[in-house]
Design goal:
Elements lengths: L2 E9 L2 E10 L4 E6 L8 H12 L2 E11 L6 E3 L1 H18 L6 H6 L5 E3 L6 H45 L2 H22 L7 H15 L2 H19 L6 H20 L4 H21 L4
Parallel strand pairs: 3-4
Antiparallel strand pairs: 1-2, 2-4, 5-6
Helix pairs in contact: 1-4, 4-7, 4-9, 5-6, 7-8, 8-9
Length: 287
């Protein structure tokens, strides 16, 4: 499931902003972007966020800005001069232009560094407060999206059950049509007197057995009920189980279509297949 959460806290002359985004993924993959002096706290941050975010491709951004501008950053002047002197000398020897020297040197590690190597305990407490607030917002977003997905799947399962219940009248019509068609075909090639009524009834029974969909209807109904029951249960990782149930639903619907021998039943089967595909699309965001 996708998710988004954001929180901001003012601390002294600083603004602490935490932003969390996630995309659906079968595995947990978290990318954490934060100030350099927070690195010692990275393990703690990852543990807290992963415990509550559970899984997905998660991107976390922690930004600390000062109202006074970039006063937390400083230029290591002696190191900058050393690099500039050496690189200028090398450029003169090679006859290379010096126009890109300054931007290149600024990208060298330790030339520009934060003045605060260690984070203050009070500042870290405010960072953690902001992280928890952002995670709470993230969870609310996911819960809202999850509820919308659940409502959609419930509605589609209901549609499948409604169309399943509409098969019965067409089943009786199939028997009448089959009997009439076979009788007409036999009379066309044989006279009515030559038709063995007992053999004819046996053939009718044979075809009726092939066309019978009682078991498929019962199983599909039970799968739909089971699907709804699983959604009612109070646990988070439902996607994989719902996926298995939807596969079983698909098998029964396909068998109904194969045994239909009726354009009316086929129309109902097509609608049920369409609804099931939309359910599977939703489940794909959960597994």
């Amino acid at each position: 499931m996708t998710g988004y959460g954001r929180a901001t806290t003012n601390y002294k002359d600083k603004v602490i902003t935490v932003e969390i985004r996630s995309l659906n993924s079968k595995f947990t993959d978290m990318r954490l972007k934060m100030p350099q002096n927070f690195k010692e706290k990275e393990t703690e941050l990852r543990r807290i966020i992963m415990e509550r975010a559970e899984r997905g491709k998660i991107e976390v951004s922690i930004d600390v800005k000062s109202h006074q501008g970039g006063d937390e950053y400083g230029l290591n002047v002696p190191l900058f001069k050393k690099y500039y002197k050496e690189l200028s000398k090398l450029a003169d020897e090679l006859g290379a232009p010096k126009g890109d020297l300054i931007p290149a040197i600024l990208r060298i590690p330790n030339v520009v560094a934060t003045e605060a190597d260690e984070i203050e305990e009070e500042e870290w407490e405010n960072v953690m407060k902001t992280v928890h607030s952002a995670v709470g917002s993230f969870e609310k977003f996911r819960a809202s999206e999850g509820q919308a997905m659940e409502d959609d799947m419930r509605a589609r399962v209901k549609i499948i059950r409604e169309h399943l219940s509409q098969l019965n009248p067409y089943e009786d019509e199939r028997v009448t049509r089959l009997r009439l068609r076979l009788s007409q075909n036999l009379e066309e090639y044989l006279s009515k007197e030559k038709i063995d009524e007992n053999r004819f009834e046996q053939e009718i029974i044979f075809y009726l057995e092939k066309m019978d969909v009682t078991e498929e209807k019962v199983r599909l109904e039970q799968h739909c009920i089971y699907f709804a029951e699983e959604m009612d249960k109070n646990y988070s990782q439902k996607g994989r189980k719902l996926s298995f149930i939807s596969q079983e639903m698909g098998r029964e619907i396909n068998t109904l279509g194969a045994k239909a021998y009726s354009s009316d039943i086929q129309k109902l089967v097509v609608i049920m297949k369409d609804e099931l595909e939309k359910i599977k699309e939703q489940i794909a965001n959960l597994v």
